[in-house]
Amino acid sequence: MLAETPRIPNGSYPIRLRVIRSLNRVMGRDDDDDDESDEIEENGSGWWVLKIGSKVKAKIDENLQLKAFKEQKRVDFVANGVWAVKFFCEEEYKAFIDTYQNCLFENTYGFEANDENRVKVYGKDFMGWAKPENADDSMWEDARDSPVSEKKTPLRVNHDLREEFEEAAKGGAIQSLALGALDNSFLISDSGIQVVRNYTHGISGKGVCVNFDKERSSVAHSTPRKALLLRAETNMLLMSPVTDKKSHSRGLHQFDIETGKVVTEWKFEKDGTDISMRDITNDSKGAQMDPTGSTFLGLDDNRLCRWDMRDRHGMVQSLVDESTPVLNWTQGHQFSRGTNFQCFATTGDGSIVVGSLDGKIRLYSSSSMRQAKTAFPGLGSPITHVDVTYDGKWILGTTDTYLVLICTLFVDKNGSTKTGFAGRMGNKISAPRLLKLNPLDSHMAGANKFRGAQFSWVTENGKQERHLVATVGKFSVIWNFQQVKDGSHECYHNQVGLKSCYCYKIVPRDDSIVESRFMHDKYAVSDSPEAPLVVATPMKVSSFSISSRRLQI
Predict the structure, then answer these.
(1) Angle at 182 between CA 177 and CA 186, to 5 degrees
(2) Residue 35, helix vs strand vs coil
(3) Mind telling me which Gene3D superfamilies this protein's record contains (predicted)?
């Protein structure tokens, strides 16, 4: 299902716009605006507002999901409904777009939109982010031309998504999904783990459900928030929050899948002091298939570390932000300034990408773990989830209202092409691209936020991920990766600001989606452009295969 942007019906008429700010700065203000302006000022709101007569008054931010159509001299946006606004002439349209962009910058960063403040926000090396029209996009085009097997054409609008399997949850509502690259995958609920079998058309039940031992393990008294497979997928680490209101955990449970028992309860401890972790992940993209693996990575608000299960006191290496004082762990110091880490992911060689509350995305190499090689500036929204391709060339960040896709490639002074994990990128940095819902779909998604955007799953050099998938409410949303990278793609025509892609497929469900992920690339069959998509809701999990046959329209 591909939803279309709403069209203005015949007979509709342009609406005159006014953009006002609470601090008595008014564009096109009428005499009857006095009361409204005073009311806003009394509330102390220091931001720009979009106002259209008595119908619309909304803060200018990404929640408006404004989409511009230059050829039609029109903008669509969401504000308690979907609105389409058409302008009389191109000059009015252009003046509105320019003013809107400036107001959005000021509302987002708290600075007036000028070149000096853009340097202050983005840094001199990232001016292509501030002025995308001047950015060097050659790296996007070079990467787009990378070879892709003719039999593995990415998902197109005319490809069909066919539901193959539907598996009911057993023993409680599904809380998370742990996909395996080998024989099995796992559905984690508040009472146990349901084992399902991996097939080329999706996952289906084996009839095995392991309940947590309520008498012997504390894992039964709290719902696991994160499940991490390791040791050739024979073991699973279960991480539960301390409280419902706090996502951090003080320890985790090591679950032996073959015996169906919790074999160890680990505490996060350093120098005799209990500490907490926000998240955990594997050392690399394919580490869960390594039968000898005993280490994994941990993340806290101001801590990024490697844990070793062979040492109960075990922080082996620490990774800190380059602008933060280096801590001496033997002295037990904490960072003097917060980094507000939120999420992280690893590449095939173990390089690490970390997303932060301020929207920054930092890259750490697998060999130098003391400071970030590259730090991308934030776009004004917290990064709630992050993923990276196996080769480390692309990063996908999730925010509440959009996804941000970043190319890490650059050419060093010797003419060699590298990623930002291997060296500092200098000032020839490509502008990112945004992936958004069109205003109609955004409105239909309601107040739900984007969650957990991920690339399709490959663990082999030379193979390229083909799709991106994210969850928003009852929708799973899929983008064609090759299409997003294509600078000539029709979505990007006549756009102002960062290029935004609105071409996607939506997989709707009847209930809120817990997680959406593509299975490992090994499960892609010859007549399908991708491995099956697995979509989990609290009470069931569904598998979809992508057929090359055309949709019947």
Answers:
(1) 25
(2) helix
(3) YVTN repeat-like/Quinoprotein amine dehydrogenase (2.130.10.10)
Among all chains, which residue has been given the structure tokens 């291997």? 422
With residue 144 as reference, give the H or E element that holds it. helix 138-144
Helices (DSSP H) in 239-286: which residue ranges?
none
For the beta sheet containing 82-86, the strands, ordered from the edge strand earlier in sequence to the opposite edge, are 67-69, 74-78, 82-86
**DSSP assignments along 82-106, one per residue:** EEEEE-SSHHHHHHHHHHHHHHHHH
- CA dist., res. 311 & res. 266, Å (int): 11
- Residue 414 CA to residue 353 CA, distance in Å, equals 25
Instruction: Give the H/E segment covering residue 180.
Output: none
On whether the pTM is more than 0.70, the answer is yes
DSSP H/E element including 254: strand 251-256
Q: Residue 277 has what DSSP assignment?
A: B
Residues 6+ apart with CB under 8 A from 29: 18, 20, 37
Q: Enter the DSSP assignment of 522.
A: G
**What's the burial of 225, exposed, middle or buried (CB within 10 Å: 0-12/13-18/19+)?**
middle
Nearest-angstrom CA–CA distance, 280 and 224: 12
β-strands 235-239, 361-364: how paired?
unpaired
**Residue 380: in which H helix or E strand, if any?**
none
